[in-house]
Amino acid sequence: MSIDMAQFIDAFLEESFEGLERMETELLALDGGDPETLNTIFRCAHSIKGGAGTFGFGAISGFTHGVETLLDRMRNGEQEAAPETVNLLLRAVDTLRAQLHAARDGGEADAAEVAEVRTLIEAHLGDAAPTGRPADNHGVADSGGADAPADGNRTGPRGWRIHFQPYADLMRTGNDPLRMFEVLEELGTLSVHCETDRLPDNADAFDPEDCHLAWTLELEGDATRDQVQEVFEWVEDESDLLIEPLDAVSEPTTEAPPLTPEPAEMGATTPRPPEAPAARGGSGNRGAESSSMRVNAGKIDALIDMVGELVITQSMLTDISDQLEEDPSKIEAQIERLRTGLGELERNTRELQESVMSIRMVPIAQVFNRFPRLVHDISGQLGKQIELTLKGEYTEVDKTVMEHLGDPLVHLVRNAVDHGIEMPDERAAAGKPETGQVTLEAFHRGGNVVIEIRDDGKGMDADRILAKARDAGLVGPNQHLDRHEILQLVFEPGLSTADQVSDLSGRGVGMDVVKKNIRGLGGNVELESEPGKGSRLTIRLPLTLSIMDGQLLKIGDETFVIPLIAIVESLQTLPESVKQAFGKLPLYRLRDEYIPIVDLAALFGRTEPSPLPERALLVVAEADDQRVALRVDDLLGQQQVVIKTLETNFRKVPGTAGATILGDGQVALILDIAGIARMASGRDTRAA
Amino acid sequence: MANDATQSIHDPATAGEDQYLTFILAEEEYGVDILRVQEIKGWERPTPLPNTPDYIRGVINVRGMIVPIIDMRLRFGMEPMDYGPTTVVIMLRVVGEERERVMGVVVDAVSEVYSIGADNLQPAPDFGTRIGVNFVRGLATVEEQMILVLDIDTLLGPGLIASADAIEAEATA
Amino acid sequence: MAKVLVVDDSASMRQMVAFTLKQAGHEVVEGRDGKDGLSKAQGAKADLVITDVNMPAMDGLQLTRELRKLGGYKFTPILVLTTEAGPEKKQEGKAAGATGWLVKPFDPDQLMNTVNRVLR
Question: Which CATH architecture has domain B2-172?
Fold first, then answer.
């Protein structure tokens, strides 16, 4: 049978990466060698070893063998779970990960590192036992391979005479002499002689589940002794077995040469696996991000249930239409049923939609899980003591959000560890516990996923940030900012608060990138901080990228959608609140704030700018800390809309965040408030 | 797959003739590779896009997909015409470097399907700078009628999107 | 054609084994670990059980012992998948009531050769 093993490799890699993550998490949590935890870690290594061997990654399998052996000894209490052993295992996890990445992407892992870690592990194992060369193990097994003419086996006898006397229990392990004979029959011409003399004489002593028979078989042909032996491999300990060449004179009472081979040779069913990772055809398609995802089976079940309900509703509606055809006179009653049916259909559709969307949702633990290791390593390097607390790891976020969240979070956590938490003596001097706290927490709030990164470190000095920002020309000499506004300056390009440039997080580089990335996901990030007490970064992200709550509104004869979350309020203008800057830049005074009024029809190039009517309808919307007041002609309803990108068939269109399809099939543009604010300010500057 | 089909037909060894769908614009006939035609729809009012050139009429919903609509008369700088009952939109598959796009082009009417051999396709003369010649694959004569065979990948490809960008950039600069 | 219960906590191994068996025309029921495998075994009588040894929740040896206690599985062939080439694991398997073993790594041909020894 030819089966392409390559088709299973993706699954193998995916589960191995997961296994490594698990190993890492558990190793970091390993406190003094809890046996259950060690067992879990062992199992992960064990699975990787087995899979790697099966799917043609001999080197990985070999490497993992050493790791597995070490773990096995640890769980058996033969080796201590000392910190340096744990660190070595963590390093081995990294090395394995690199090897698997190389296997996936067709590159090569750092051979020196692999060899070094391997040597370290072997040294750790401390004895001469060869570790991590599965070829060695299987090499032994191979010597028993079917075609190997082992010592004197292949003398060319006519065949073999086999005396086989099973013990009574043989069949209780699922073995069946008949099936063995059938296999033998495939090896040559078989004649069977059954000996019944052990059958009990009286029926009481006869247990039909026992094996009472013995056989003498003669197999003619050129089968080797090993081949014959292999057939009886599983029952050697449950039977008396004698195999002798047919040509030899058979002595019934035999002190024959020992027939049971050395135990190590018993793995004869297993010839060596194909060595090289059998030409993994076009590995290029295994890009860095896999587009496949694991879905909780419960979610699929829920989906199936809902489709079932949908089918029922459909048949109900069909039934109503049939009835109407048959007897139009009962139209009144049928319309009532029709309404119910449509109501049901609406509910089904909504639930189905929610359910389908939830399939894209994955627990944030997938990102959070890398942080214990990160914090462990960095704090080790810096000589800081840090306790990391993860909360809300099972909060679900959209898969795409998740994939883009990793890098920004790494940066923020590094910052907290590197710049936030002080050295232990510094903390002690400030009257704080020597161990600093970093907390990573995720939760849902409203339509958002909120992620907080908190530390109890030294906090941010607003005066210094302001001074730097003034130096950098980000803030004018006379511009007044409140404390909160000053803190947000850290997200501006090229601003740093670190006294020293550490090799961990560069000089302020990145905070602007972090903000940009998070904006790119439709979210925002804010910093709060108190000197001496610590800092808190709050990231808010939309729950899913493709569905949002929208406010429908009319401008001219066109319908637009604004994300509900962006709307601050909508209001009817009071004439005295409308101001004109430079005579043509309308501003609306809302409490203490002046908000530019945007004539969207003009901004979008539909019409010439028109003067603001006496009483106009304004929608005040906010994004990226900028507010705009949109002139609208009518507010329509609110509804959930599916966001479609214009880029699929066209390109990004400034001022829009995509489009959606309304109930009547018409396309409505979704407004990008931040983009509109930028466009409006661009225009206004020029106009002024 | 359809792509391969296009190529194999272009291969003179396998077939000497390509099929073209022709349409009418201001009484002249234009042809597009029929393998790129997805469907032909009646005119419906699109949702306009902000700050795009006039020939980009907006976007419509085609079975859940948002598709831009391009007015060919305006694209070629011809007199605009009122959209009437014979006005049709031809949905075309435009092959770009990174991906395929679906775009609709508004024409006066759909005309015929012709087979035109590659050797019956004359190179296009210089139309001057007003209309780039690079999106004309060639000229053919069928039944004494001139047919301008268009290269839609160039006509509706990055050039069009970039020119829309340029205009937009100009508008917001 | 037979019904084969494949129990392994590694999805890729399960996939490979199941795919190979299905190619050979067998029906395959999959179990994620010993516990799951046991409940699947109770759900539908399998003609052959192939189980990994090291698994969470319930290991393959325990599964084998549990299966042998069930009336329907007294004589059903149970093959254990082991990475250990040494004799101890095999003997452990036998002691638990396994019919035989298959040493990892194995390829589809080896798998089918072994399966054919117990499925007739």
Answer: Beta Barrel (2.40)
Annotated domain spans of chain C: 3-118
Q: Say which DSSP state B47 is in.
A: B
Local confidence band at A282 (pLDDT 50, 70, 90 cut-offs): very low
CB pairs under 8 A between A and B: 74
User: What phi and psi, each to the nearest 5 degrees, are found at residue A630?
Assistant: -90, 130
CA distance B110 to B106: 10
- The predicted-structure confidence for A289-313, as pLDDT tens digits, reads as follows 445 677 777 788 888 888 888 888 8
Tell how many helices (H) and how many strands (E) occur in chain C.
Answer: 5, 5
User: What predicted TM-score, i.e. pTM, was given to this entire model?
Assistant: 0.46
Domain ranges of chain B: 2-172
Strand partners, A93: none
CA B140, CA B120: separation in Å to the nearest integer? 6
| B168 vs A606, A654, A669: nearest CB | A654
Contact A667 B103 (CB under 8 A): no
Residue C4: CB atoms within 10 Å: 24
Average pLDDT rounded to a whole number, residues C101-110: 84
How far is it, in rounded angstroms, from Cα A27 to Cα A141?
A: 33
Q: What is the C-alpha separation between A43 and A23, in angstroms, rounded?
A: 9
3-state secondary structure of A526: strand
Could you tell me which chain A residue has the CA closest to the CA of C97? A173
Query: 3-class SS at A162?
Result: strand
Classify C3-118 by CATH class.
Answer: alpha beta
- Give the residues across from B32 on adjacent strands: B21
Question: Would residue C57 be called left, alpha or beta, if left means φ above 0 and alpha means ψ between -120 and 50 degrees?
Answer: left
- Look at residue A681 and give its three-state secondary structure: helix
Pairing outcome for strands B56-62 and A189-195: unpaired
**Is there a contact between C89 and C75 (Cβ–Cβ < 8 Å)?**
no
Cβ–Cβ under 8 Å, residues A572 and A617: yes
Assess C103–A contact: CB distance below 8 Å, yes or no.
Answer: yes
Query: Quick count: other Cβ atoms within 10 Å of Cβ A78?
Result: 10
